[in-house]
Amino acid sequence: MISLALILLSSVFFVGIVNRTKSMASGRIGPGLTQHLKDIARLLKKGSVTSTSSSFIFQLAPSISFVTVVVACLFLPFGDQPSILSFQYDVVVFAYLLALGRFCMVIMAMDTASPFEGMGANREALYGMLVEPAFFILAGSFAVLTGHTSLNEIFRDMHLGSGVSYLMAAFAVYVFLQIAMVENSRLPVDDPKTHLELTMVHEVIILDNSGFDLGMILATISLRFAMFGVLIANFALPPMVPLWGKILIAIGVMALFAVVVGLLESFRARNRMKRNPQFIFTLTSIAILVFFTVLIITNKLVL
Amino acid sequence: MNLSMPLAFFAGSVCIAGVMMIARRRILQVLLLVAYFSLLGALLIHEFTFLDVVEAEYLKADPLAVLFLGVLAIVGSLAAYYGMAYAKHRGDNDRQVATHNAALVLFLTMVVGVYISRHIGLVWAFLEASTLTSAILIYYNRNKHSVEATWKYVFVCSIGIAIAFAGILFLSIASEAREVHDLSFEAIRITAPTMNAGWLKFAFLFMVTGFSVKMGVAPLFNVDIDAKDGAPSHVAALLSSVLMIAGFVAIFRVYMALAGTSILPWMNSVLIIVGLMSVFFAAIYISKIKNVKRILAYSSLEHAGIVLIAVGSGAWFAAVLHVILHAFAKSSLFFQYAHFFRLYQSKNVNSVGDYIKLHPAGAGVLILGLLAITAVPPMGTFITELFMFQALFSGPHAWVAFPLFLLVAVILWGLTKNVLSILYRPAPSAIHPAAPFSVMETVPQYALLLAVVYLGFFAPPAFVQFVQSAVTFHP
Amino acid sequence: MVTILIILFVVTLVYVSMVDRLATFVTILGIQGVLLFGIAYMELRDVDALNLSFILAETLVFKGIVIPWFLRRTLRKNKLVKEAEPTVTHFTSLLFVTAIILVSFLLAYTVHEEHLRIGYFTASLSALFTGLFIIMARTKIITHVMGYLLLENGIFLLSLAVGNEMPLAVNTAILLDLLTSVLLLAFLVDKVGESFQTVDASELNELND
Q1: How many Å from the N-terminal Cα to the C-terminal Cα in chain C?
Q2: How far A258 CA lies from chain C's nearest CA (Å)?
Q3: Cβ–Cβ < 8 Å for B211, B250
Q4: DSSP B231
Q5: Chains with 3 or more CB pairs under 8 A to chain A
Q6: pLDDT tens for residues A4-33?
């Protein structure tokens, strides 16, 4: 419950903090912290215009995508507080819910038959494919480390002991941070502010969406961002602290996460398209390292 | 009993090399070279007197080392002589000559180190040092060819030798498991039978691969050919005699140290495969290419391969003798090549001819040398190859003899065709009539070739016994 | 602690596969030198002082400072900035290096030997093969030198893994050889640049049959 509440809370402010950090870094005052909510609200009030050549998929996809993220949020625990939904191997379900959302977006883009959107869908699918092994290997590492297969139990039993496990957690946080950037189409893989269709990834996919659908998509993004924020915050929760302390820590971590994202976006150039696959695949390489480390420190290898 | 003689030799050589860099006058250089080779002679006599005595903890001269030291003294001094002649003829400046001589001295010293070390790590270190010093020798001409040859040679040698070091580490893993911390060849030989055969195989494979670049056999032979092509001919002579022996010593000592283990048949197969591959590549190239210097280099590849086949088939005596005889024959030919190039200013077989009229004494060397490297009866190489084939037939790898015969025949055809073309084809008109060659300059070359005949067919029993003792073990 | 350093060492290998700025490559080599220094220090604290100071000098001073400095000088002299046209794209290199790490791990796991820790063995084999891979995949000869250095680092790590120190005399000789070989190679890069007006390995084809 707490995690869901936190996700909702942070989804309210997250994008706002990122935008505010960016505008402060570039010397502007920038929009208010809840500006994106107002945008979403405005869009949701509108009706949407759909092309006559597109099918029901086009109208269905944004909603499905939104729902997948909401359901995925239900699986997230908060420290030792259990999540709403939990069963064995729910890690897999979690990953594939996100993948399902992505899949819907891809076929939605294909449905419009626009060449630009086809290109964007192509990229989106490629990046999704590349990011997946990183997530699974990392999830597998933690499953091996704790001996459990549901997110709930993994985070409950994950206690960082030695220096090696701190390093591992650092790598894991790095990988999750980057996965979040890729999943949410931010720098350096994709730039939400870009104006040229040829260099867009996510923006070009939603080019034809308008009104309610577009609002839904924007809401999905801020929700997903908040979800990753909670996921990352989970790594930083010390087991001994009382609940309110944990909540404070989590909020702090997520605020930090948002500021980091904002700073990264302000000071980092976007990758050339050609470099993206390699950038994303690095995450897998590092995840593999984490996996090996886990195997070694847990003595899971029959030596 | 002066046990630190080898150390004195190393120190003396470094001093001589240092002085050479300062005292650049030609006459002083000659004097210093003479001093160096006297020192080398003294070391040879010393080691011959104190056979199999451990000196300075890591050095020991067994009969094998003494034999090869002798070869090194002979070929090395002749190379120095021809090097001076080469420089004089080309009018190279004093600085270049001084650098070259100093590098020559250091190079020979490092190779001496390879011969007399009894610790595998030290053999490795001396081999790498010989690569580095030989780089200066190969670089002598300072033109595009020599830069390219040097770069490739140093780089691939360094890689090869790094791989060999990994092999040494594998060996040390195997010995560590047996609580043995000493990596001298004697210690390895004693404990090797109890070590893990898998690690030993790994170690042997890596070391053969790594040292192959120094010996000039497959798989890493390419740069060796390039180095011989890009280097001055007397340096090429050193590379295919002294340095080839150094690579052989490294491989042979490892092989001998592991010969008491269960992997002996496997090692034999590896060496025979490597040897056969080398001869195969040599045959392919010799029958095709027209660059005389490279043809000579590929012939070295062939002989190095034959030597390894001899080792692998158990004819160790033949292997050691063959590597010595080949060193004499091939260096004689490379020395002769300097005359050849001076006359024609070309390496290409197609643009030369009539050598027998233009330089009769040199043509004689060429004919005798051809006989030596194709192992035709008056030459000692015939005997050693005969032994090799004998051992091959009686061993488990008899089938290898047939492709080997075929390949050797191809090489014989390729070499003879090219040499005959050099000797008798009408010369292109552009050749200057009979450049003045003093007969004296060819005398050492004849002497080397006569040594090949002598050591093969009329070898004194004492020499045979000495070679025999070089391939048996001394506790 | 050692494990952390080893993991960081492997991470540098992953990073190496995707850099295209040569100066960054040199920096990574320097970092590797420092990491090796840390590993050697942790590992060999109980060896005698002379041997220890020797190995520390080799890692920190040579691998960490002298060699990177010398390589930078060579880069500046030849006005080299980037690995212009990698014949193998960075993405493929990354795939390869990841595969190398995987295979090394499996290899280390299968040849398991009680005197050999898996972490060390994996890292050293990965560095060895990554070095070889870089040499094969890149075109500039200065990158080849750097690949050679990676390979050397791998072998150094392997020698630590084995833990069988060579005698001091042998160690000295080995260290001197390595240092000279790198300096010589860097010097030759200069010379190749002067004579060929390029440092592209594929242009080195004056000598052929």
Answers
A1: 54
A2: 26
A3: yes
A4: S
A5: C
A6: 888 888 888 888 888 888 888 888 888 888
Q: Which of chain B's residues have a Cβ under 8 Å away from the Cβ of C146?
A: none
d(C-alpha A129, C-alpha A299), whole Å: 31
Please tell me what DSSP assigns to residue B432. P
Neighbours of B472 (CB within 10 A): 10
- Structure tokens of B67? 């034999």
CA distance A279 to chain C (A): 8
Q: Tell whether the model's pLDDT for residue B417 goes beyond 70.
A: yes
Find chain A residues with C-beta within 8 A of C10's C-beta. 289
Q: What dihedral angle (degrees, nearest 10) is formed by the CA atoms of B368, B370, B371, B374?
A: 160
Pair B126, B253: CB distance under 8 Å: no
At B60 the three-state DSSP class reads strand
Chain C CB within 8 Å of residue B284 CB:
no
**Secondary structure (3-state) at B4:** coil
Residues belonging to chain C: 209
User: In the prediction, which pLDDT does B295 show?
Assistant: 92
* Cβ atoms B189, B257 nearer than 8 A: yes
Angle at B130 between CA B126 and CA B136, to 5 degrees: 150
Q: With touching defined as 3+ CB pairs under 8 A, do chains A and B touch?
A: no
Q: Are strands B54-55 and B59-60 parallel, antiparallel or unpaired?
A: antiparallel
Mean pLDDT by 10 residues, chain C (209 residues): 84 85 90 90 76 80 88 85 70 87 85 72 90 86 89 87 70 78 84 80 73
Residues 6+ apart with CB under 8 A from B125: B113, C170, C173, C174, C176, C177
Distance CA C156, CA C95 (A): 25
ipTM of the assembly?
0.90
- What is the 3-state composition of chain B as percent helix, strand, coil, each rounded to the nearest 5? 80, 0, 20
Residues 6 or more apart from B228 whose CB is under 8 A from it? B236, B239, B240, B293, B294, B296, B297, B300
Contact: B155, C148; criterion CB under 8 Å: yes
Cα gap B128→A77, rounded to integer Å: 60
